[in-house]
Amino acid sequence: QQQVKQSPQSLIVQKGGISIINCAYENTAFDYFPWYQQFPGKGPALLIAIRPDVSEKKEGRFTISFNKSAKQFSLHIMDSQPGDSATYFCAASAHTGGFKTIFGAGTRLFVKA
Amino acid sequence: DVKVTQSSRYLVKRTGEKVFLECVQDMDHENMFWYRQDPGLGLRLIYFSYDVKMKEKGDIPEGYSVSREKKERFSLILESASTNQTSMYLCASSLNRGGQYFGAGTRLSVL
Q1: B61 CB-contact burial (10 Å; exposed 0-12 / middle 13-18 / buried 19+)
Q2: Which of A72, B33, B35, B39 is the most exposed place for a label (fewest CB within 10 A)?
Q3: How do the pLDDT tens digits run along chain A, 113 residues long?
Q4: Is residue B101 less than 8 Å (CB to CB) from chain A?
């Protein structure tokens, strides 16, 4: 019940295309859903996050779509660029959960020029 | 900008050595975390702390301990390093109900 399932494991997208990464969770107590971007040799960086009171959040080319009833959320990267090539992690946490964050297994994105 | 600084980028230690990994954050965050990251296994939580002198076990605490004597500093200790502790170690900090900010990581090799 604590897991966050992320798919796909890897993704190849043409430059200018849309990259879509999906995550699903079981624990309905989760109330914060961040996405992290990690480049090789670096720590993960907070990219964008959403709380379950909204269904979508957009920041530049990055959009989170959130479906509370299906317990799913996804990251959309519009106009994908080679510089977006990185590993992306979805995550979930609950304010009642002792501040622990549960991470998905990660998606390695490669954007072809 | 939040800054989380890990004391070493690379460390090479011998089996049985006591190893200290240090982490400092400059944004007065209440919560601090230690993870290890291994290929195919994602991020696994070792320990976290939500206040000075407080600590909670994560998912894989065996073989590790932590210390948080000051709010800005969270140390990870490998009491007797073993080869299966060769990994990338990541420190993070956060406010309550917020995203985590990670350091650049320490790549530890235990020979």
Answers
A1: middle
A2: B39
A3: 578 999 999 999 999 999 999 999 998 889 999 999 999 989 999 999 999 999 999 999 999 999 999 999 999 999 999 999 999 999 998 877 556 788 999 999 999 99
A4: yes
Strands A56-59 and A86-93: unpaired
Rounded Cα gap, residues A19 and A102, in angstroms: 23
Residue type, A55: S
Question: A106 in contact with B at a CB cutoff of 8 Å?
Answer: yes
- How many other C-beta atoms lie within 10 A of the C-beta of residue B98? 17
Q: In chain A, what residues touch B98 (CB-CB under 8 Å)?
A: 32
Question: Choosing among A38, A99, A107, which should be mutated to test the B contact, i.e. which has the most B CBs within 10 A?
Answer: A99
Cis ω on the peptide bond leading into residue A8 (within 30° of 0)? yes
* Cβ-based neighbours of A107, under 8 Å, separated by 6 or more: A6, A7, A8, A9, A10, A11, A21, A87, A88, A89
Interface of A with B in 32-71 (CB under 8 A): 32, 34, 36, 41-46, 49
